[in-house]
């Protein structure tokens, strides 16, 4: 009896179940307009990636599908400027499982400011000449 229990245990140990999992360790500073390489492992079949937003899983709202029918283990995503700064999550789905990424805040790209010196602005500014014409009252004209 002990022998069959050990055999069953050994056979069970040989049968390892793999499950879809994302492999990105860092979901910090995801920036609008900046590419992010999303990676995963152990998919059973093609993978689809869906962007959802909301603070808790019960309140998630689907934003849209990022990609579907992916057979590779990575996808390069560039967050669109149409997305708002908010808390998001990426749902990974294969034929038998779905998992969520870490929640992340999508941030706006930093704004770059260019300064121009007053001298260069003055040099580039157009110049105007104004001529005033006064009536000549001394000769009786203009009256």
TrEMBL record:
It comes from the Eukaryota. Residues 1-19 form the signal peptide. Residues 29-104 form the Yeast cell wall synthesis Kre9/Knh1-like N-terminal domain. Keywords: Signal. This is Yeast cell wall synthesis Kre9/Knh1-like N-terminal domain-containing protein. It comes from Glarea lozoyensis (strain ATCC 20868 / MF5171).
């Amino acid at each position: 009896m002990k022998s069959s229990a050990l055999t069953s245990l050994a056979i069970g140990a040989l049968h390892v179940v793999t499950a879809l999992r994302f492999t990105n360790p860092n979901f910090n500073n995801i920036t609008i307009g900046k590419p992010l390489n999303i990676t995963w492992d152990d998919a059973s079949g093609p993978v689809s990636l869906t962007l959802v937003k909301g603070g808790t899983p019960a309140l998630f709202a689907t934003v849209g599908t990022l990609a579907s029918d992916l057979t590779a283990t990575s996808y390069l995503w560039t967050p669109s400027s149409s997305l708002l700064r908010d808390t998001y999550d990426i749902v990974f789905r294969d034929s038998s499982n779905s998992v969520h990424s870490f929640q992340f805040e999508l941030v706006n790209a930093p704004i770059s400011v260019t300064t121009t010196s007053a001298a260069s602005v003055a040099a580039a500014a157009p110049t105007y000449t104004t001529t005033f014409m006064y009536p000549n009252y001394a000769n009786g004209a203009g009256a």
